[in-house]
Amino acid sequence: MASSIENNNEKLTLKSSDGEEFLVEKHVALQSTLLQNMLDSDCSSADVIPLPKIDARTLALVLGYCKKHADASSSKQGELNSFDSEFLKDMDMGALFNLVLAANFMEIKGLLDIAAQKIADTIKDKPHQEVREIFHVENDYTPEEEAAVREENRWAFEGFP
Amino acid sequence: MSDLSHPNSPSPTDSESDGESAHSGYDPTYSSDEPMYPKRQRLCARIRKAAVDLITALPESLLLHVLSFLPIEDAVKTQVLSKRWLHLWTYSTSLVFLHDSDKSVSDFVSFVDRTLVLCNCTKLKKLGVRFAYEPDYASNVNLWTMFAMGKGAEELQLDFENVPWEIDEEVGYYLLPQLLYSKSSFKVLQFSKCNVMPKGVVCWNSLKKLSIGYAGLSEDVIQKILAGSPVLEILELYYFYGFNRLHISNASVKKLILRDFWEHNEEVEEEYQIDRYLSMLEVSAPHLHSLEILGHLRDKICRLGDVSSLVDANLNFYMEIYHSYDNVSYVNMLRGLLQSLVHVKKITLGTLAIQVLSIMEAKGLRSPLLNCEFLTLDTGIWKPVLPGIANMLESSPNLETLVITTSSSNYDACFSDACTELCNFDEKSYWTSKEKPFMCLTLHLHEVKFIGLGSYNFDFHLSFAQFLLKNARVLQKMVIDSKTESCNWPKEFVRAARKLLSFPRSSPNAVVLF
């Protein structure tokens, strides 16, 4: 891996938390503000850039997104939009959260936004019991407390179950 | 009860340790020593267990980011999820209130009032409101606007739909408070059905994008706004009236969108319909890069002054046509527009403009010679537009890319009667009868795209494609993008595709893609 960097300045190697290495073209990596800043400073001389918070599965997804957006910059926005919606389709919540964390860490605004939007869409219009189930949120209110929250904020819940 | 009134309120800036500990808690794959795949089953069970409170594992800054994509009603409701969520939503920096027509307007207004009172964020990014405004709520909306200004909002959107006093806007519209004009934190402003009337100096020093719709705007008001918006980049006006001249001297303004002119004084119009006087709108903006004139221009004749920096022009508009044969003013208008666009690299024309070009072709009037390299024709291909297309190809010797998009309203009649009568030709053999090839086909045209091709008038598209394949010597690819429709008519599509592939090509490198 390291030798391929020396041979080709246009590529760099990223290492996931579980030790897998990804060889990435530079213009693809530049979709990430974090990597861009690292490349702008001296860090680019490092052989391998470790990403200790991102597992291989997530990193592969992130790089897939970056590649599409880096290569398609000149093509139509509509094409990218349909790629984006296809990209997150059928993705389970765990993967989605990992993606949000990774996009946030690597500072990839577009990916962060579509992943956050996808999570928001899942919560939208759902009664809170259901939202709790979807996200496995543990309700730490006592029944009295919950009733009080609802009572005091009745204006917000009118018309909702 | 006491612990509810003293919640461990989240800090708007993400507390690192909190996010960190929760983070390592939910995803066991992060403890990297463990081999992942052999123990998959056990791991799955662990993930499931760790997945408890999965969303709560996100740091607060990210949860707020998720909340900012929720309609505000849903964001407010998240307070019952758990204690951590009780006050989280109040730090949301984006508040967008959209009225749902199932609910009463007064409920909506009090919902906005109460929500804003609870808002804890120190700096607001966006406040947006859309509802059927009534004058009774002026003081409420004033407070909301003041709130946005007080919180240093970057984006304010006041979108008032269904105002019942549409005709007499002076009475029914919300009058923007004068203080708003001197607030320099705004980057994006959008006003729909608001009265925009600055009395003093406008001071929108950070404003990048301004959009005003359903409004009467005087030349004076526009100049005041432009003078007070030194970094404005995008100006959009839709359903507007009240001025005949738009001069933008700001070097920062790169994009102008004029969409749907407002037919004012409708009744008077009808009385004088016969010897109707077409009114004029003159646009000049020497620094503009992109200009879009879209939608219904009513009876406005557009003229362009200095647009010398323009690279992209979209003339996908239609107009009131009282008599198909009375077309001199339209011909003059289009010739004038094209004359002003001779240097522009990217041009989009709608079906009306192309039909006017057909009339010009029939009268022997060429479009001025254009520098256009990228041409988009938003029209169905049928008889009344064929000579217009030929006219454009003839006048664009440098054309490299041609896109034909065919959306639904593309067969508007416009001048079709006049075109059909003036253009005495057999539409079936129109292209094969063109003996002299266009210069752009010989020299530059390397990409052709048909987008949204439907089965309607398919043969017209086919014979045009055949003509292009036969004559475009340097063509590299022709793309037929019919994603949406092809499933409805697979048989015909396959037949057409076979036919298309069998056409002779003059360029050795040309590929046809579906």
Automatic annotation (TrEMBL), chain A:
Pathway: Protein modification; protein ubiquitination. Gene3D superfamilies: Potassium Channel Kv1.1, Chain A. Residues 11-70 form the SKP1 component POZ domain. Residues 109-156 form the SKP1 component dimerisation domain. CDD domains: BTB_POZ_SKP1 (cd18322). GO terms for biological process: jasmonic acid mediated signaling pathway; protein ubiquitination; ubiquitin-dependent protein catabolic process. Keywords: Ubl conjugation pathway. Belongs to the SKP1 family. Involved in ubiquitination and subsequent proteasomal degradation of target proteins. Together with CUL1, RBX1 and a F-box protein, it forms a SCF E3 ubiquitin ligase complex. The functional specificity of this complex depends on the type of F-box protein. In the SCF complex, it serves as an adapter that links the F-box protein to CUL1. Part of a SCF (SKP1-cullin-F-box) protein ligase complex. This is SKP1-like protein. It comes from Rhododendron griersonianum.
Automatic annotation (TrEMBL), chain B:
InterPro entries: F-box-like_dom_sf, F-box_AtFBL13-like, F-box_dom, FBD, FBL13/AtMIF1-like, LRR_dom_sf, LRR_FXL15/At3g58940/PEG3-like. CDD domains: F-box_AtFBL13-like. Residues 1-35 are annotated as: Disordered. It holds the Pfam family F-box. SMART domains: FBOX. Residues 52-88 form the F-box domain. Residues 1-14 have a biased composition (Polar residues). It comes from the Eukaryota. This is F-box domain-containing protein. It comes from Rhododendron griersonianum. The lineage of its organism: Eukaryota, Viridiplantae, Streptophyta, Embryophyta, Tracheophyta.
